[in-house]
Amino acid sequence: MTPYNHRESMVGPSVLGPWLLDKDEALPVLKYAFDKGINTWDVADTYSNGESEGILGAAIKHYNIPRSKLVIMSKCFQFVDEEKGPIDPATLTSNNGPRVNRVGLSRKHILDAGGHDVPPKEIMKALNDVIESGKVRYTGASSEEREMNPDCNYTGVGLFPWSSLAAGVLAHSWTDRTDAREQKDPFLKLLFRGEDQNTNRAVVDRVEELAQKQGVAMANIAQSWLIAKGCMPICGLEREERIDQAVEALQGTLSDEEIKYLEELYVPKMSFPF
What we know:
Elements: H1 23-35, E1 40-42, H2 51-62, E2 71-73, H3 107-114, H4 120-132, H5 148-155, H6 180-184, H7 186-192, H8 197-214, H9 218-228, H10 240-249, H11 256-263
Parallel strand pairs: 1-2
């Protein structure tokens, strides 16, 4: 695995989200990313209801990219509606509609039924069986960071922060809402434009301030901060320009004072439930 571990999963029919790329647009972007050394691609069956996985496969075949030179990370943590298209994240707490399966149970109830009663050994055995059967090389976990991050750093387990640009919020001024994702993505509004907007805005303002001082994109500052923490950010890169910025972030450095300045106003938040 090369050092260039960045996400390339902003792909899927544009009808599913105006910030996504159709197949014909996505293929050359994926090739450009590979040529730049980005060989780790992050997808999931739930991204664009599986379309992103299919587009990755098409890119590998179209450009004859050796499979041995790619690391593909996928997930099986959420639901996929095979008939009605994308599911609005705003309906995640609903017990009606597309989240109800063929036997009348909502995904919410199915997940609750798993609960905390399942013995950890049983969970880990199931994951290990997937590895031993040859279906995957490694397994991972997501979003439990307060205790796990220090342990991962101590034991040498790699960390790949998702949504490293806060769904694009860290890539532009706080008051700039012209981006299509800012206007249409309920997930972005839920996580980053919610109750604690004053703190979030203060952090974004400082990212913008440092970017202007260094003459770089705001995304470079945000990603350089993560890299300084020993992480490799997962990034949504939909244009060649964004890919170049992500690669440049590997060369960027932040001083200890700048890192402290970025972190100074941060207020811990409640963990997100996945």
